[in-house]
Amino acid sequence: MNNSEWLEIGEIVSAQGLNGEVRVYPDSDFPERFEKPGKRWLLRSGQTEPQPIELLSGRYIPHKGIYVIKLAGVNDRTQAEALQGGKLMVPESDRPHLEEDEFHVIDLIGLEVFNQLTGESIGIVVDVASAGNDLLIVNPHSSTTNKPGENTKEKQILIPFVKAIVPVVNLENGKIEITPPPGLLEI
To answer: What CATH number did the domain enclosing 64 receive?
Structure first.
């Protein structure tokens, strides 16, 4: 599968109830991807090509951070459990239009972070977390041997993704400039 052709929007984490609904952990900030009926693609565990599937309905479960969705042809718990670990996908061309100063998470990962005041390179964005404001999760250069997903939480820097602290995001040049408040970069 050519990953550049597809965007992962969520992962099926478990069955929900007895009627074939599944719980999805979202990788998208666009609720309509899980709530608006229509065609999606499912990449089952162990497969390399996503297959088209019809989303019939979906709803958000507050405080759990998941969606419960109903897919066509999935009518009981056994069928729903068989989808666990599958990824919901949409074509890359389905990216929603963003306003100025809005970014897709996947575009931020891998960008180099610079201190605007000193010009010093701080590290690389490895993920974005939601916590009121989004937080850029940055592996500092001192730990560049760590691979994304390794247990490096104690070494990572969390940078609030707000205009006052992150005034410049330059996707073309692959860099982010920050103006850190005192104490932000002290590990």
So the answer is: 2.40.30.60
